[in-house]
Design brief:
Blueprint: E1 6-11, E2 14-19, H1 30-44, E3 51-56, H2 67-73, H3 78-97, E4 102-106, E5 109-111, H4 113-120, E6 123-127, E7 131-133, H5 147-165, E8 168-170, H6 171-176, E9 182-184, H7 189-201, H8 205-218, H9 225-240, H10 242-252, H11 261-264
Parallel strand pairs: 2-3, 3-4, 4-6, 5-7, 6-9
Antiparallel strand pairs: 1-2, 7-8
Helix pairs in contact: 1-3, 3-4, 4-5
Length: about 260
Amino acid sequence: MTYQTLEIEVRDGAGFLWLNRPELRNAMNDVMIGELAEAIAALGAEPAARVIVLGGRGKAFCAGADLNWMRSARDFTPEQARADSARLASVLRGLYESPKPTLARVQGAAFAGGLGLVAACDVVVASAEAKFCLSEVRLGLIPAMISPYLLRAIGERHARRYMLSAEVFDAAQARHIGLVHELVAADTLDATIGALAAALAAGAPGALGETKRLIRDMVGRPIDDRVVAETAARIATARASAEGQEGMASFFEKRRPAWSPVAAK
């Protein structure tokens, strides 16, 4: 499929999804949001893409909302505003609930909705020059749609500061508060992304998706009899699955499992 605002490439077991409006610092508009929803779903169903890497072309990851789009949104009816907001909410949920591991490659600005894309990804690698900001309150707005993902990524206390102050913070602080997993020099960003994508792609596809679902289902739940029984049932199901049987067989036979990208070559 051809996109106006995105660039897609599948290689080395990963689906690379590039925001491709570098002249506008990859600011999001309605076209990009619609294309992101389609591309995330397409890569989620693409067998050759074991992991989804989200990045931005040019000097920025994503500077937030496109100014022209914001200007036109001032005249929306309440119904139009809700429908417009729901589209970005769907993109964020698509990233968060994708059956594939999602890996954010961050350089330059990741502001407002762009920071939301980062928070919705499973793993985040940023260059030392990256900058982050939740600027909504300075515009009389609120970071509503990104808040569920941000709160899970950095916790309530850090979210209170940056959602309320709209401060710009650097990559070192982003790592300190848990938004970024790994901080690297700009010239090693792609090599780090490649190595981490390969590590993620080495997992069994079904097990990766089920592990993501397991994390979502267990976060915040008390460790009670129901959780103990449910987790025991889930590992029993995984052990009996075709992937589980192949994984154990390959381990004892000292060979690569059938799903390994190397074994498939």
